[in-house]
Amino acid sequence: MEVAKVTSKGQITIPIAIRKSLGVHEGDKVLFVEQNGQIVLMNSTMEALRQAQIAFAGEAEKAGLHNEDDVVQMMREFRQERYDARND
To answer: 32: which strand partners?
Structure first.
């Protein structure tokens, strides 16, 4: 358990062990999320990535992407389409 003191401006210093655990560094943003009556501190970048993963779940399969080779082929086709569009 770690403790942080609140300053007169409402600021706290996140203990180093917690910063390391969250993977946050100077300038990073953190989230304060209420969950079941408790406040949870989260790395905002990691939470955004998690939310994106949830939002995109299943989309690769819908697009017919099953492995890295499928992604490479899709990118080749996309680049060719862009090249063709610019040179028409």
So the answer is: 41
Q: Which residues contact 78 (CB under 8 A, 6 or more apart)?
A: none
Predicted confidence at residue 82, as pLDDT, reads 93
The pLDDT of residue 25: 95
Query: DSSP state, 60?
Result: H
Which of 56, 60, 80 lies closest to 69 in space, CA to CA?
60
Domains (range + CATH), the chain: 1-57 (2.10.260.10), 60-88 (no CATH)
The pLDDT of residue 33 = 93
The helix or strand, by DSSP H or E, that contains position 35, with its residue range, turns out to be strand 30-35
Rounded to two decimals, what is the model's pTM? 0.58
Q: What percentage of the chain has pLDDT greater than the value 70? A: 100
